[in-house]
Amino acid sequence: MNSGIQLPGCGQRPRCLHLAHSLQLDANPALAYPIDHQTVLDLIKENLLDLALSNAGMLVLGAAAGMISASLGLGGGIVMVPALIEFAHLDPHTAKGTSLFLIIFIAALNAWRLNHGYPDKHWRLGVYLACGSILGGYFGAWVTALMPGRTILWIFIGLLGVLGIRTFFIRERAVSEGEVHKRYKLACLIGFAAGVVSGMTGTGGGAVLVPLALLAGIVTNERVVGVSNMVMVATSIAATAAHLRAERLCDFPWTVGQVHFAIVPFVFIGAQIGSPWGKHINARLTLARRRVVLGTLLLILVARLLVRALAG
């Protein structure tokens, strides 16, 4: 199993583990030099302060991701994966595994919000899409577990490039209620393609599912995002399962396989705080301005990830 690349922080033993080791040495002087109790208290205070600052930082990270996602229409994972690599110091594998675990809850909440009030919840279409996406999500996550971390970065950079081309050069097809076709076998294939991309990049797969579903004419523009979020829940559960079974690369506590659980509550709460602000900004952005802001953000993300990929 490939160990991937170790980014700063993820390959280092956290301070709390140093503290636990120090306490163990103090309890058994034969292991090493003795440590006085004042030093232990100072270590505890320092680690508690570090923990508080780290959790506050994850709240801010989640709020920023939620605001950007809601204001520009980007999927949370598009912002979350680079942010977890850059600011939480996770390796690419653990960053996308953690992002997928977060998307389970974010997409479930979004699916409820977006489908609430509609008598037809499109359950049948959602099931067919999910059947394909579950297989694709697990497969994509399993395949990338065998790849080095730098390859994951290049795959993610490629996804951002496709997203940029779609944003600037491709118009989404307009599908009205009367133009919808029941193509359930095709829906399974679309779900599989979206699932593979989700498992490989940690993004949920909406960037692939939405345009393909509209191109196939299986759902209207009005309902496609709600259906996409329904499917993302199933996709992310399957892809997260593969990451939980994968080799652990990160030395941080509360990490199982390639999912870092400790930061999840703070990022999720932060995203819910930032989302209403993003909707407020979105209502005041013209299409031209939104494209400029989105293009600038994508360029920044690509540039930063390119630096990491080339330096790694």
Architecture overview:
Strand 1 and strand 2 form a beta hairpin. It is built from 11 helices and 2 strands. The protein has one domain. The N terminus is likely disordered. With 312 residues, the protein is mostly helical. Helix content is 72%, strand content 1%. The two termini are 19 Å apart.
Structural class, from secondary structure content?
mainly alpha
Overall mean pLDDT score?
Answer: 83
* Helical residue percent band: over 70%
Could you state the order of secondary-structure elements as H and E?
HHHHHHHHHEEHH
Shape designation:
globular
Q: Strand portion, in percent? A: under 5%
Q: Going across the major beta sheet, what is the strand order?
A: 1-2
**What distance lies between the first and last C-alpha atoms, to the nearest angstrom?**
19 Å
Rg over alpha carbons: 21 Å
Features:
two-stranded antiparallel ribbon, globular, 11 helices, mainly alpha, single chain
Structure, briefly:
With 312 residues, the chain is mainly alpha-helical.
Topology:
Blueprint: H1 15-27, H2 37-72, H3 76-86, H4 92-115, H5 123-145, H6 149-169, H7 184-201, H8 206-216, H9 221-245, E1 255-256, E2 259-260, H10 264-282, H11 287-311
Antiparallel strand pairs: 1-2
Helix pairs in contact: 1-2, 2-3, 2-10, 3-4, 4-9, 4-10, 5-7, 5-9, 6-11, 7-8, 7-9, 8-9
